[in-house]
């Protein structure tokens, strides 16, 4: 069904199926005709690609992805939407709907089973309550994905795509920069959704790196240090890390200074290399 962005169509489909929005599941459906074709085109929904979609709603983006990609696998947690999707996506034989929680799926197996011989892209208008966990799950598992193109809240987009060494950055910024390059593709106003949320959105894209930065001897420890570094906003790197890791301050200061940094430096000032150097020094000292 082609006009799923139309408010009248959304209302009619919902009424036919007795569907009501769930706020808890982040159900704000797109009702702007230009957004989905743009996500599909910029998000690699094209020949040779299999696309994983997270959260279908009534299928407005799924519909556009199915037109371009060889195959679409769409994961939707809300079983009330399954009969809706059977109606709205009836014309496509390259779409598979999985009625599951994306956080509980074995994504490596899914990609291996469903997208053999295809390049893989992820496209979604993400449910906002799981934005960071979903993105981190996709990145950390080193899945064979080319691009992740997702709609997120505008403020979250700024943080996710922040450059290292800038005020907007947080632990998630370091993790994203480690695994991928990130950019904001375009903004989407709150009026593009039904029901209308209180904030604007943006579409961001992560292009996964072929290899991660060199010099990290223990990734688990590195990310523990990174999470510790940003665990207490506006505190110094030393204070945050020593309290988060239970490490003595003298060792943390030594690790900071050996990385060529001032003992009072704040975590958002560090480049990726400085964060790696600090973490490696600390690992040897504690
Ligand atoms: N793609 C649709 C659109 O753009 O109109 C819907 C987007 S809506 C923001 C998010 C969708 O994700 C909802 O359909 C919701 O039911 C689904 N969802 C929420 N949590 C989920 C989860 N853990 N796993 C899979 N889908 C989920």
Kindly list the characteristics that best describe this protein.
17% strand; Helicase, Ruva Protein, domain 3; 286 residues; 12 helices; binds S-adenosylmethionine; alpha/beta; two-stranded antiparallel ribbon; 40% helix; 9 strands; Rossmann fold
What does this structure look like?
There is one protein chain. By secondary structure, this protein is an alpha/beta fold. It has two domains: 202 residues, Vaccinia Virus protein VP39 (Rossmann fold, 3-Layer(aba) Sandwich); 67 residues, rRNA adenine dimethylase, C-terminal domain (Helicase, Ruva Protein, domain 3, Orthogonal Bundle). The chain contains twelve helices and nine strands. The strands form two sheets. It has a seven-stranded mixed sheet with strand order 4-3-2-5-6-9-7, with helices on both faces. It has a two-stranded antiparallel sheet with strand order 1-8. Strand 2, helix 3 and strand 3 form a beta-alpha-beta unit. The protein is elongated and about 65 Å long. The mean pLDDT is 96. The site of S-adenosylmethionine has 22 residues, from strand 1 and helix 3.
List the secondary-structure elements in sequence, H or E: HEHEHEHEHEHEHHEEEHHHH
How are strands sequenced across the largest beta sheet? 4-3-2-5-6-9-7
Give me the CATH architecture of the largest domain, please.
Answer: 3-Layer(aba) Sandwich
SS-derived structural category? alpha/beta
The stretches of 5 or more residues where confidence is low (pLDDT under 50) are none
Helix content: 25-40%
């Amino acid at each position: 069904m082609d006009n799923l962005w139309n408010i009248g169509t959304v209302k009619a489909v919902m009424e036919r199926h007795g569907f009501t929005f769930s706020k808890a599941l982040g159900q704000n459906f797109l009702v702007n005709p230009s957004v989905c074709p743009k996500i599909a085109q910029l998000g690699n929904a094209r020949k040779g690609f299999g696309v994983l979609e997270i959260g279908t709603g009534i299928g407005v983006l799924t519909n556009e992805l199915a037109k371009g990609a060889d195959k679409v696998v769409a994961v939707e947690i809300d079983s009330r939407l399954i009969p809706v999707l059977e109606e709205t996506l009836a014309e496509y034989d390259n779409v598979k709907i999985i009625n599951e929680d994306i956080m509980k799926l074995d994504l490596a197996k899914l990609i291996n089973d469903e997208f053999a011989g295809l390049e893989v892209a992820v496209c979604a208008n993400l449910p906002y309550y799981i934005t960071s966990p979903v993105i981190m799950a996709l990145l950390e598992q080193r899945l064979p994905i080319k691009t992740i193109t997702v709609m997120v809240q505008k403020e979250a987009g700024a943080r996710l795509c922040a450059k290292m060494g800038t005020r907007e950055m947080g632990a998630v910024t370091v993790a994203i920069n480690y695994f991928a390059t990130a950019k904001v593709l375009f903004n989407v106003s709150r009026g593009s959704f039904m029901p209308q949320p209180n904030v604007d959105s943006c579409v961001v894209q992560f292009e996964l790196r072929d290899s991660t930065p060199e010099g990290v001897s223990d990734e688990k420890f590195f990310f523990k240090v990174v999470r510790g570094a940003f665990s207490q906003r506006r505190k110094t790197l030393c204070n945050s890390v020593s309290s988060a890791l239970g490490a003595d301050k003298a060792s943390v200061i030594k690790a900071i200074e050996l990385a060529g940094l001032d003992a009072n430096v704040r975590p958002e000032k560090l480049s990726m290399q400085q964060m790696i150097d600090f973490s490696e020094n600390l690992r040897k000292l504690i």
